[in-house]
Design a protein that fits this description.
Largest sheet of chain A: 5 strands, mixed
Order of helices and strands of chain A: EEEHEEEHEHEEEHHHEHEH
Number of strands of chain A: 12
Helix content of chain A: 25-40%
CATH superfamily of the largest domain in chain A: ATPase, nucleotide binding domain
Number of helices of chain A: 8
Strand order of the largest sheet of chain A: 3-2-1-4-7
CATH architecture of the largest domain in chain A: 2-Layer Sandwich
Oligomer: homodimer
Chain lengths: 301, 301
């Protein structure tokens, strides 16, 4: 009998909860507004209890906003740690759900969850080393190295790398409250909005915003390529809904690398190297199902 | 009976070959000038054949200059690939040694070898995710993520990431023939020499060169921290012989991170987070012994 999983895409404005098996088989999905931790987690638990009356769940996967503790050996594993989101600092998400629902719980960042979903069923199936980057309200990155999800001291914060910023060409100072003109400060949705006076979705594809945006994204990708040597890079999130960005970014990366790394994957037009997510808008919730599958496998190992 | 290993630290100017077990037990060590591939590898083979008459070697490890192919499943595994070094492009180092010596061969970049040695016996023992960076004639980086040496499409080229470069404060254009003012172009030994008109070792510890150098290294480390979330970073190589750089770099990293990543390891003075190699000048050859140990274990698995 095939396994059945619960999934939580835990975001700052909504928790999407679902029951399913994989991309071809999502039984049910609901949306819960993110309010206080007690109320939001209470409604999440109520949802799974109600579903559980009909279906026995093998595990639940949670892809969450952060910062969070993804280290299963840590005393604060499963906590959202020091988030600026009011009321949510030091929230024990995993413990709260496990105590109420008594199933194995998989837990990781939203971007690592999405990365793992794309690894099981999407744009990086069969690859062991890749980056998944989402560009929207913020910029976040996850991925795998050697078949393992990227963890370490904590988890990556790829949006906060530093990239060249020519203040003569672009005097905009950046919007990151911590680092001003880090990658996220220069290239997130709010940065686009503030610099150009209009939201990203209102900027036409021939607007100069996109050439500049591709320069910053291209610099960041060169840094990820030189640091991790990924086999492929997935770019998702609201900013990437502007599909004309993809060729601009590929040109920028090719130009910046300057044929330094001579491998076939980096030799051509990079169409198969820098790609959109295959799971589209479902990458978050499918990623959470993927984490549940991993937790179920580990629990029965 | 304990195992005995051969080791090759394959560099652009010399091949250091050794026989040993680990840091406490190096039986023999020789230096061979790097000339043509045929001559250099011929002398390397002759050395191990002569040693082999007295000691039976369980495996040989090679930490090499690159670019190279470290993927054991690739048809060009063990090759130096597209190096600018005359005569060495497409040199099958592993195949040549294995055909002559009939032992398992471990092979990786010089920096991944050194990283693995530090993992077994040095500054990152017990850690699963870390970066090893060497700053000298070039800048190279390696390390592990989740207990696996960093590979992917090829191997990292950490010296070639892009970092902020304020041309008003530092009009120097950089020395990298591929990327001009990438990290290596701005902060390698030759960059220091060309910018200040004197080699690094001739610049006193209070020279303004070191403040600027710490800014570039600090920016690069922030990028590695945000991308990989390392538990520790080792800084080695000739440039780091200027020990006053360590506190300058730690201050720079702390200032640039701006308390964004709140974990104990990044909370204090970073003395235990940004460290010199514990194996010192022997990290290269001990890293090659470490690769031999890994190859021996894998061969008998």
């Amino acid at each position: 009998m095939s396994k059945l999983f619960g999934a939580v895409e835990a975001g700052g404005t909504k928790f999407v909860c679902a029951i399913g098996v994989g991309p071809e088989d999502i039984h049910d999905i609901v949306r819960i507004d993110t309010t206080t931790p007690a109320e939001t987690l209470g409604r999440t638990i109520a949802y799974f209890r109600q579903q559980h009356a009909h279906h026995s769940l093998d595990a639940i996967g949670i892809g969450s906003f952060g910062p969070l503790d993804p280290d299963a050996t840590s005393p604060t594993f499963g906590f959202i740690t020091s988030t600026p989101k009011p009321g949510w600092s030091n929230t024990d998400i995993v413990g709260t759900l496990r105590n109420a629902l008594h199933v194995p719980i998989g837990f990781d960042t939203d971007v690592n969850a999405a990365a793992f979903g794309e690894h099981l069923w999407g744009a990086v199936a069969g690859l062991h080393t890749f980056v998944y980057l989402t560009l929207g309200t913020g910029i976040g990155g996850g991925g795998m190295v050697g078949g393992k999800l990227l963890h370490g001291l904590l988890h990556p914060e790829m949006g906060h790398i530093l990239v060249p910023h020519d203040r003569t060409a672009d005097p905009f100072g950046g919007v990151c409250p911590f680092h001003a003109d880090c990658f996220e400060g220069l290239a997130s949705g709010p940065a686009l909005h503030k610099r150009w006076g209009a939201p990203a979705e209102a900027l036409p594809s021939d607007h100069p915003a996109w050439t500049l945006e591709a320069q910053y994204i291209g610099s960041a990708l060169v840094n990820f390529i030189c640091t991790l040597s990924p086999q492929r890079i997935i770019l998702g999130g609201g900013v990437m809904h502007q599909r004309s960005l993809f060729p601009l970014i590929r040109n920028q990366v090719r130009s910046l690398l300057h044929e330094y790394i001579r491998v076939p994957a980096l030799g051509g037009g990079l169409e198969d190297f820098i790609v959109p997510p295959a799971l589209g808008d479902r990458s978050g919730i499918l990623g959470a199902i993927a984490l549940a599958q991993l937790a179920s496998t580990e629990a029965s190992a």
